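Feature request, filed as a ticket because there's no other form

It would be nice if the structure record came with a short human-readable summary line next to the tokens. Right now we just get the raw output. Example of a typical job, pasted below so the devs can see what we mean:
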Amino acid sequence: MQPARPDPATSVRYLSDARLNLGGAFTDAQREEFGLVGLLPDGYESLEIQLDRARLQFDGQGSDLAKYQYLSALQDRQERLFYALIRSDFERYMPIVYTPTVGEACQKFGHIFRRPKGMYLSVKRRGSLAKVLRNWPVEDVRFIVVTDGERILGLGDQGVCGMGIPVGKLALYTACAGVPPEVALPIVLDLGTNNEAFLADPLYPGLKMPRITGDEYYAFLDEFVAAVQEVFPACCIQFEDFTNKHAIPLLQRYREKVCCFNDDIQGTAAVAVAGLFGASRLSQRPLREQTLLFMGAGSAAVGIADLFVTQLIAEGCSEREAVRACWFVNSRGMVHSKMPRIPDYLERFAHDISHLTFPQGAPSTPDSPLKDLADVVETIRPSAIIGVSTVAHAFNERVVRAMARINARPIIFPLSNPTSKSECTAEEAIKWSDGRAIVASGSPFPPLHFGGKLFVPGQGNNVYIYPAVGMAIYATKATRVTDAMFLRAAESLAAQTTEQDLSVGLIYPPISSILETSVEVAIAVAKLIFQNGLARVPEPDDIAQFVRSQVYEPSF
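Raw output as currently delivered:
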């Protein structure tokens, strides 16, 4: 009698399921049990050997986009190896997994698409979103990163091709802070696109229709949020890359009802304020003596200003003093109290400027007496300029030199992503300030030497914040996300910047240590969650040990 064959479904499952596949690290016993004998070469390969091969294959790719595609395929094939590879060298792999390479990946998504990731909820599915969500194979989803694709990084409307953003964000939740990958779900809401190139492209994979707007738009979002609560009741929703016209209203609409946050507003604010903590230490100028000038007046800029104001009030400033320390420039010039059509969220930062003296002959606009950023710098005399405009080269030589003339240590934060949208490079800020600028950028820039001194530009990247806050929410099953959590995250992050870091101009802990940094931030935020009664689990005796016990380890 012939011996029974192993169930082929078992062997296929262990080789095709990215969470189960160990490659050559399956032991002899496992190969026998799972029917894998003969389906793999007989040599045993440890994690380190497989990492060596993955590095070799990664380095053999001909472009950053090809490297992105390689890592995406590795994640689909062998999840633990993917995360172990990223953790082995964050500085090397993070710019490929996320910014800046993810921007190009989104622009070309329809052409490089190979295997679906996450979920696509289209306007065609109105009335049945909860049913569609139940098609996801994991029952206990704890994090959703969702975008409608309308404002991807600084690239504009990418429609469903914006899926690269939720996928990349959630990969960094796991790599940088240890949130288990199985509890994460990336989602794109396909509400149409106004990108004419995509509408004309036969390879665009989304709905070829104009975007829905107004009440129809908000009704769909209401159904989506309600469906998440029904299907995944312990889930936190992160809104990502929504336009200014929707980002703040959506956060206000849901933040007191469900566990949710907007990383572009709150995460950006926390990492910027953490950078200001570090810059204050480096310049030896207290935070309450800083004056901020924002290039860009959208949701990200106002989010930073709001958190900065909260911190100044905590330090003893009046609200009026704190608000007066924040100034804005938008596409119509310097924002002021008499400027027409000011959005509601910007009104408290639109100051009376009747007492100011403007540079003679300075260009103006119909809505503002000052058009050029350099003229605003000369008038306001800020200690810090923060770029969240996606206007490349907005911090030109005249602007930076004006900042350097006014300040002994000018703070220059070109935070816009991707690199092509950065307001200036780190090298430009250092050179034009004669080596005195304190720099943090949204995209990574390499270390440089100037005037015989080494400078290591800080990366004011939200990756320092949202994965750590996410880990705290995951561990505690928090019912809500508050601004206080992001301020606590900023404080914890800044506290981990050492004097040695500051000595080379680095105002954040090194990216190479981001896992340990993120876990420490998560512990600080978790303590606040328990303190404020927002946890859905009992408070443990040792919160730090409790959080660390939840951290995902991509080991074999």
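Something like this underneath would help us a lot:
The chain has three domains: 1-45, 101-258, 270-461.
The longest helix spans residues 263-283.
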